[in-house]
Amino acid sequence: MFYIKEQRNIIDMLHPGAEEYHSLLESIGGFCEKEILPGARRTDQEEIFPGDNLAKVAERGIFALSFPEQYKGGGKPFPVYTAALEMLAKACANTALHVSIQGMICEGIRLFGNEEQRMRFLKEKGLAGGKGLIAFALTEPCCGSDAKEIQTTAVLTGNRYILNGSKMMITNPGESDFALIFARTDKGISAFVVSARTRGFNVMKAIPKLGFRGNQLAAINLERCEVAREDLLGEEGRGLEYAKHILNSGRITIAAIGLGIAQAAFEKSVLYSKKRKAFGESIANFQLVQEKFSDMATQISAARLLTCHAAFLKEIGRDFALEASKAKLFSSEMAIRVCDHAIQIHGGYGYTDTYDVHRHWRDARLLTIGEGTSDMLRLLIAHLALKEG
Fold first, then answer.
1. What percentage of the chain exceeds 70 in pLDDT?
2. What's this model's pTM, rounded to 2 decimal places?
């Protein structure tokens, strides 16, 4: 079953007597296994954008699971959403990645947009529910982690902003209906919700990459791109502050994706080790293989608890920046270690396409870079820990 015992125990711990959540998550797990998992390998190998999967996920209500009902959301606790996202990533990480990105952007609109923007974008345009898609555009050729140095400009002319500049390493801009664009105004960095059909919004050629091959990575060129004043998100000059809050939410969901990838690699390795014979017995009986399984299982459990703790703090309205950073750092690096062990357990087959194991390692490798590199998160965790101390 996709909804495993440890997830059930954690949900019980966070929400005692939560039978409705168990039924929901079991149903989502079954959906992921039957509807999403079968095409995951082909999505990677043929570099297919998982649009059909995303439509199914939207229809199932997974996009909107944690959003308020007034915006056509499911109104469920955030830890329930992260558990669903983990299962989705176990089935197809390419599908889960866009759901994660979309969720963090929509959370930013919910937190920092006015009520008219929330109703228009989250409900009417269907972004909260995944009926419309949106990309996150902060990174530029000049700067990734150093976001305060972005060069894209937004000049207010009458009742419209004129945007000029370029964005780099953006996930699925060519497949999205909107993009959250960060640009420099007179008052500082600001955020704008921009329709991808706007004149002057140009998506450049996709960039070949190591993993997550079902998600397009491309640049956006903005050339006299006109944006209505009412599409400024929140207040002018507060965009960098908004980006930090948005990324904190995204770090929890990226941690959940790391869990799903690692769980998939772990389960494949267990099945393979029981079937594979060497020196007259199953390799599952070998001490060194069992040592790997011990490390894999323990680290997955530790990452799951860190991730659910951060999700729970977010759900009850506590400051979760430190916990989200810890969860994302540990889970992303854990996923690489687990997937590396999985390749080793499969031996030569792990290096080939035969058992589809190295796909998980290739996908996991991105997670230590996106939504804050491991290096930057270590600095942030140290800063926050010292500040608390």
1. 100
2. 0.96
